[in-house]
Amino acid sequence: MKVTHILLIASCVLLSNTNHINLTSAVPDIDTLKGPTASTPVPANNNGTVTDPASTTFGTGTSSRLALYVPGNVYKDYPGWLPLYKALVFQGIPVTVTKDINVAKSHDTVLAYQAFQSKYLGFFDSLTWSGYVTGGNTLISIGMTSKDLFLRMAFGVGIDTNTANAKYREAIVLQKGQSPNSQFDFTDVRDTEIPLYREVADEGFPSIGYTLDWGTNSLGAYRDDEKNLDGKHGITYRSNVFGGRAVAIGIDLGAYIGEANGGKTRGIPRSYVAQYEPGYDNFLRIIKNLYTTSTSAGLVTSWPVPGNKGVHFSWTYDIDAQDSYELAYEVAKDLQSRGIGGTINWQAKLVKDAYDVASFSHYYRNISAVEALGNMELASHSISHSPNLLAFPVGTGKEIWDGSTYDETNYFPFVGQCTNETGVWKTNIPGATTCETPNDR
């Protein structure tokens, strides 16, 4: 990957109707990297212990945050809740984590992680969640296997609990007909398919299949190794007349994110480990779209919205560009000295493998240093690859970068990618005639 994919310099319009803006930037202290008091980067610390979400003292914010519900011993049995939480934060979603059903249901949007298995359900829990959905709220489940009637009716699905592996399920194909809910009406195979397979078919990613009932729609259907849809659905969507929505995702999204970012198991990446793979982020973008369109979230975001007035700088760095880590800090420090804020679309690695030693020794310590400066917000690198980026009104389109060689009469944000999905080099940047060569690293 290249050091920098995009540089956007735009004058951003700050919406004046702040009553409809809810930008909650606080992060639970369960995994916050403590920023340094001085400008010296601080390396990340991983003591290898299991993190209990009940240990957090984070208690501020409103009910418009997304509640990540991790009840009972789920955090021990499924530690993937933590990379899932981190990934949601990197998508610009204000998240609170709780083990308490009463705290969770007080929020407008709940993401229930592995909570809807029989062993984690209390006697009245299914009734509680059924009432939550009919109350006009948004409920998203990860890994639901319980066949409780109230849950099945709330989500509108029949449940296949055969989760041994995905031998015949090599991908989840996003359903274009549901694009208002999924925002994936694209044609690139990397955007329309989420890979679950590896070269050895019987080592595919564990999956739960759902059948549709009670007027439920599909956001994603499983494709088997014969290239056909197998009749079960990996992502389902049901809405009701009260404005409530229930979405079921049939794989352990936390584990999927961990393995996909690690790149050393199951062969989920279709290229070398650090290359952009939209399949990693499609789940998160669906969740974010559901969150931002919930009935009372009131969140305004351009993945995410720049938080300062006036000039705002936005740029993106690749995980494998080590020099970029230090440069990001230097740029942020310079902007701070000028009273300017910005957004860094930083590519997020949530697990460590052999390839990422440099990432964990340089990358995270500079993130903590940038956070400590206080003038930058962090966002997901994948945003800069997405056609969605161009859909947001940033500035007037008439901004001029004095002294540049850019065409000042036709300036607009553009995301350029020099390779297609097979790695063949191409040019699709307006006005460009060449791309850097594969050896120009």
Structure description:
The radius of gyration is 22 Å and the shape is globular. The longest helix is centred in the last third of the chain and has 17 residues, at 357-373. Helix 2 (81-90) crosses helix 8 (253-262) and helix 4 (125-134) runs parallel beside helix 5 (149-155). The strands form three sheets. Strands 3-2-4-5-12-11-10-7-8 form a nine-stranded mixed sheet, with helices on both faces. The protein has a four-stranded mixed sheet with strand order 1-13-14-15. It is of the alpha/beta class and 441 residues long. Residues 1-50, 263-267, 270-276, 296-310 and 393-441 have low confidence and may be disordered. The N and C termini lie close together (8 Å). The protein has two domains: 1-21 and 300-441, no CATH class; 47-292, Rossmann fold, CATH 3.40.50.880. The chain has eleven helices and 15 strands.
Element layout with pairings:
Layout: E1 7-11, E2 66-69, H1 74-77, H2 81-90, E3 95-98, H3 101-104, E4 109-113, H4 125-134, E5 138-142, H5 149-155, E6 157-160, E7 171-174, H6 179-182, H7 189-192, E8 193-195, E9 209-212, E10 217-223, E11 229-239, E12 245-249, H8 253-262, H9 278-292, E13 311-317, H10 322-337, E14 341-346, H11 357-373, E15 376-380
Helix pairs in contact: 2-8, 4-5, 10-11
Summarize the model shown:
This protein has 441 residues and is α/β, with parallel strands linked by helices.
CATH topology of the largest domain: Rossmann fold
Rg from C-alpha positions?
Answer: 22 Å
What's the story with the biggest beta sheet? 9 strands, mixed
DSSP strand tally: 15
Number of structural domains: 2
Instruction: Give the overall average pLDDT.
Output: 66
